[in-house]
C-alpha cells in the first residue's frame, strides 16, 4: 500500500485511515476495516517514456504516468499534471484523494490521476504540441470515454487539452468525450474554468450559514487566498461578488497582500499574464491595475502570516501549503473558516491545529471550522462530470444551468459531510461543530466501499 519513498501518498493514506478510526464507523460496521488494504492499492499504474523534439531539433525525454486507482463508481476520472515535481508518490496521493472526492459529487466517476515531469514553462507552443502528441501516443492506449477520462491540472490548461484531444482523435480515429476541459466550440462546458473556485466558495457559504444559524454571509468577511491560477482567481472573484474583501494571492515565487482589497481589475491582469508564465512580482510591476491601490509584494513567502486579521482562509495553490506554524498564525489572526481549494493544502500539523481549536470551542460563535480539499474543491471535477454528461447527450447547457447544478452539488456535498459526521462522530463536546474532515472521509469511503462490495472486490 504505502512505500517508504511515497511521503505524499502516505500522508493522504494516514489522514483517511486515522479519521475513519476516530469515527464510530468500524465499531458499527467492522467489516469495512478490511476494505482499507484493497482500496489503497491502485487497480493499475501505467508508467511510460515520452520522447519529443525541441525547437532546436534536440531529443528530449520525460516520464509519463497514469494511476488508474479505482473504477467502482465509474470511469477513472482525474487530471493530468505537467510539472517537474511530478512523481509516483504525488500522483498516487492525488489519485487516492480523487476516489473519495469524486464519490462526494454524487456523480458516476471513479478516481485516477496522471501527468509528467515535463515543464511547460519556457516552452514554445510548437514544443508543447510535440510533447502532447508524444505523451498521448502511449496514453491513448489506456483511456476512453467509458474507461478513463483525464482532465487538466497544474500545467495543463486549455491549450494542452486541445493538443492532447487532437492527438487522441488522430491516433484513435474517434471523436469522443475522452478529455474534459475542452474548448467551448468542441465539447467543453461553460463554468468549467470557474468551477473549482466557485464551488469552493459555495461550500464555505454553507459553512458560514450553518455555523451562524443563517445570521452571517460572506458580506464583510476578510478572505486570505493563496495561488494565482484558475482556482484562486475565480474563488476571489466570487468572494468579491458576495461582498467580501480578498486580501491576498500568491504564486511559487511570492505573495501579494492588499489590505484594502484585491480588485477585479487586479485579477483580470493576473488572468491575462499568467498564461504567459509571468510571476506576480512581474505582474504587480508591469500592469496599470496595480498602480491604483497599495499592493505589497513579499518575495519567497506564502500569505498566511502576513495577511493580518482574516475571517476566511482558502488555500488554493498546491499540497502542504499551510504548515502547523502558519495554521497557528491564522488562528491568532481570527480565522473562523478554512477550506482547501488545493488538494491536501494543509499539512497534518496544520489540520491538527484547526481541529484542536474546533474541539475546544465553547460556543458556535467561537468555533474554527476546517474543510478538506476532497470536499471543498470537488466542484471542478463535478463540472467535468457535467461536461461528460453533455458530451454523451450531444448538448450544451447554459451558464445558468451549469452554475445551478454546481451549486446544488456543493450544497449536497456539504450536507452529506455534515450529516455523516454527526452520525459517526465520537466527540462528546456538543458545543463544537462536527468534523468536516471526518464527514468527508467517512461519506466518500462508505460509498466507494459499498460499490466495491457489490462488484465482488471484497466480501
Explain what this protein looks like in three dimensions.
The structure is a single chain. This protein folds into 2 domains: 7-12 and 38-177, 3-Layer(aba) Sandwich (Rossmann fold); 195-376, Rossmann fold, CATH 3.40.50. The strands form 2 sheets. A 7-stranded mixed sheet has the order 9-8-7-6-10-11-12. It is of the alpha/beta class. Helix content is 44%, strand content 15%. It contains 16 helices and 12 strands. α4 packs across α16 (436-454), α5 (125-139) packs across α6 and α7 crosses α14. The protein has helices at 7-22, 25-28, 36-39, 88-105, 125-139, 158-172, 195-211, 230-241, 264-273, 280-286, 324-332, 348-360, 373-376, 379-393, 399-424, 436-454, and strands at residues 44-53, 59-70, 76-82, 111-116, 148-151, 222-225, 245-251, 254-257, 296-299, 312-314, 337-339, 369-371. The model has no long low-confidence stretch (mean pLDDT 95). β10 (312-314), α11 (324-332) and β11 form a beta-alpha-beta unit.
